[in-house]
């Protein structure tokens, strides 16, 4: 037996009790666990816990050690190196921003994100970002104030292989793009982002996108897409994204979902139905949304795609052609009218003026003014006031819509206010003032739901065994301050932010601690819906065999039986691992709510060791490993002990 396995089995031999809860639901009100004489790095006393599942809030203490949530319940008899009373405050999972355009040089401090309660940002959205994901390690080495993860961008991959010309990809180029995507997934990418609205990704036909993305099917990941058209053809573009996801075997996500332009208002009824219909037929489809009726992108967004063919220089040549300039001017006008009411709704935050104002000052049309700005200044940041409240609310309330900023960490004073106010705006304006969501729904849309969409298994919920990414806020005062004219105003009401067990915000002030990590995803972390209010059963019986460590000899005996009834917060369960040869045994009698999805299951908890020490445990179960085709069990205890084995026996996840 190799030394690693000996260390693992020695650790397990010290286990006397596994006291755990599943990562999506600590037993609610009426549950109290006396855990005397325990010691923790930090105890949050008497907080009102909203756990990220959407379940009803409850009051409990939270004990944190070694970067993990070790205990939830009554910890009056325990000792904490630091103890804080958070009575009357909401203790929630740290918010996960699954669509961030963070300025990477700001990630070392990330005050704009931390003051919103954000603990993790996913960068590389809309199809962009470096093709080589080693840049994530470089960012981590420089120091991170928050956690980050990265998508692999379809547009970046297309540009790397095919270039910026509007042409078809060859069979060899398809294979090359597939290789780049698979390499990125192997390095921990959290999905394949796309911006089929933007050149050169826009040049790819639907079958080409499917062919390239299909290599990710066995990774069980997601496909967030800035759809080809958010205005006149929003229905077709939404349907296309869902078709790509279904055909390629990945979760389609309509990113920053919206309906643009007065002539299209009301179409959210149909776009949401497309998502709902996909879910009804067994395809998990989702969306994300920011809480503003204005978008931000470049000025080039109102220039038709054919004019951009070949890149910026080719576009400028077309502008310079007198025979084409008039046609381009008219097509820009048509695009403006499809996105917003008029050029007065096209706002430049760096200039604090509108396209209509600039056109009037210069005595030209908005289309001509657009070309002149692009010729002299490039595609400057532009805010488009596009939306309609009824569409916004309809998208927001759809159960598979998460909240994401489309912003991210910044220090800019001329940007969209969402980069300083997204999450507090939801909690303050949408929940407290307008009553569009309950607090439980809002927290779920900013924590548990985005965690599940991108595939996280150890973040996004308040539960034992979960990594301690936690946000504590005052529900009565939390609010955004940023405006379109003065965006650089930090949010208020976020009192504490804990990242990997360390304070990033304490008493509403940044601590300058760089506790963030560059997070990586693996194929056993599937993108999935939240499995709540459903009946589930998991049964495992047999022996574990690790063919890479110790040959094919029978390993520990394992027996798992979990019966989760619908509308219950706690499962009837039994878990037993016995290794007679190495004299250890684990027994478990109860679990909380179980996470399952298409033959996969996962739960977290804590392992209690001698001398009353505890360590977090994460168990994942696969009926059919997508790479080996075998029944597989994976166990992780703390940061240093892992065991992955093929099951010789019977396994079933319902």
TrEMBL record:
Q: Which residues form the Amidohydrolase domain?
A: 354-503
A GO term for molecular function: hydrolase activity, acting on carbon-nitrogen (but not peptide) bonds, in cyclic amides
The UniProt entry, under Pfam families, shows:
Amidohydro_3
- Residue spans making up a coiled coil are none
Q: Which InterPro entries match?
A: Amidohydro_3, Metal-dep_hydrolase_composite, Metal_Hydrolase, Metallo-dep_Hydrolases_sf
Tell me which SUPFAM superfamilies the record gives.
Composite domain of metallo-dependent hydrolases (SSF51338), Metallo-dependent hydrolases (SSF51556)
A GO CC annotation recorded here is: cytosol
Cited PANTHER family: COLLAPSIN RESPONSE MEDIATOR PROTEIN, HYDRANTOINASE/DIHYDROPYRIMIDINASE FAMILY MEMBER
Record protein name field: Amidohydrolase 3 domain-containing protein
Q: Which organism is it from?
A: Sporosarcina globispora
Q: Lineage from the top down?
A: Bacteria, Bacillati, Bacillota, Bacilli, Bacillales
């Amino acid at each position: 037996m190799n030394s690693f396995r000996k260390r693992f089995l020695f650790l397990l031999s010290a286990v006397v009790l596994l006291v755990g809860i599943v990562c999506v639901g600590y037993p609610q009100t009426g549950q109290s666990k006396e855990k005397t004489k325990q010691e923790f790095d930090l105890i949050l006393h008497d907080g009102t816990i909203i756990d990220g599942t959407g379940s009803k809030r409850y009051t409990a203490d939270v004990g944190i050690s070694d970067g993990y949530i070790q205990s939830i319940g009554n910890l009056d008899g325990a000792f904490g190196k630091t103890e804080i009373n958070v009575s009357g405050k909401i203790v929630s999972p740290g918010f996960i921003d699954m669509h961030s355009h963070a300025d990477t040089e700001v990630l070392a401090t990330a005050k704009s994100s931390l003051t919103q309660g954000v603990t993790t940002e996913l960068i590389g959205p809309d199809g962009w970002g470096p093709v080589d994901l080693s840049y994530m390690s470089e960012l981590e080495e420089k120091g991170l104030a928050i956690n980050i993860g990265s998508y692999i961008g379809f547009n970046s991959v297309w540009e790397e292989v095919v270039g910026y010309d509007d042409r078809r990809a060859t069979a060899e180029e398809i294979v090359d793009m597939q290789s780049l995507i698979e390499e990125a997934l192997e390095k921990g990418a959290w999905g394949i982002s796309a911006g089929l609205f933007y050149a050169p990704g826009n040049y790819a036909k639907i079958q080409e996108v499917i062919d390239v993305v299909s290599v990710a099917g066995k990774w069980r990941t997601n496909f967030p897409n800035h759809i080809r058209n958010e205005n006149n053809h929003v229905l077709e573009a939404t349907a296309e994204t869902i078709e790509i996801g279904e055909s390629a075997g990945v979760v389609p996500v309509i990113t920053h979902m919206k309906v643009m332009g007065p002539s299209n208002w009301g179409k959210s009824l149909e776009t949401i139905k497309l998502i709902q219909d996909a879910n009804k037929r067994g395809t998990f489809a989702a969306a994300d949304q920011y809480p503003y009726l204005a978008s931000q992108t470049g000025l080039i967004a109102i220039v038709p795609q054919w004019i951009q063919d070949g890149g910026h220089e080719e576009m400028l040549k077309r502008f310079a052609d007198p025979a084409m300039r008039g046609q381009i001017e008219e097509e820009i006008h048509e695009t403006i009218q499809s996105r917003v009411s008029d050029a007065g709704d096209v706002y430049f935050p760096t200039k604090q003026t509108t396209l209509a104002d600039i056109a009037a000052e210069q005595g030209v049309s908005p289309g001509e003014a657009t070309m002149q700005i692009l010729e002299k200044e490039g595609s400057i940041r532009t805010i488009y006031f596009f939306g309609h409240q009824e569409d916004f609310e309809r998208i927001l309330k759809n159960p598979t819509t998460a909240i994401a900023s489309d912003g991210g960490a910044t220090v800019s004073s001329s940007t969209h206010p969402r980069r300083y106010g997204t999450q507090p705006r939801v909690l303050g304006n949408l929940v407290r003032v307008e009553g569009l969501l309950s607090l439980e729904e809002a927290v779920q849309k900013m924590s548990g739901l985005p965690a599940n969409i991108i595939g996280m298994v150890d973040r996004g919920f308040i539960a034992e065994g979960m990594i301690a990414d936690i946000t504590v806020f005052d529900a009565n005062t939390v609010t955004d301050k940023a405006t379109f004219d003065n965006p650089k105003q930090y949010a208020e009401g976020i009192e504490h932010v804990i990242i990997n067990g360390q304070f990033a915000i304490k008493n509403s002030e940044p601590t300058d601690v760089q506790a963030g990590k560059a997070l990586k995803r693996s194929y056993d972390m599937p993108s999935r819906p939240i499995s709540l209010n459903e009946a589930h059963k998991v049964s495992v019986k047999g022996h574990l065999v690790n063919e890479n460590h110790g040959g094919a000899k029978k390993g520990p005996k394992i027996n798992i039986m979990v019966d989760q009834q619908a509308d219950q917060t706690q499962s009837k369960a039994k878990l037993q691992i016995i290794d007679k040869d190495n004299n250890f045994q684990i027994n478990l009698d109860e679990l909380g709510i179980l996470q399952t999805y298409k033959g996969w299951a996962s739960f977290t908890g804590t392992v209690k060791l001698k001398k009353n020490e505890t360590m977090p445990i994460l168990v994942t179960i696969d009926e059919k490993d997508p790479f080996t085709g075998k029944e597989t069990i994976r166990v992780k205890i703390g940061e240093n002990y892992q065991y992955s084995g093929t099951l010789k026996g019977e396994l079933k996840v319902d």
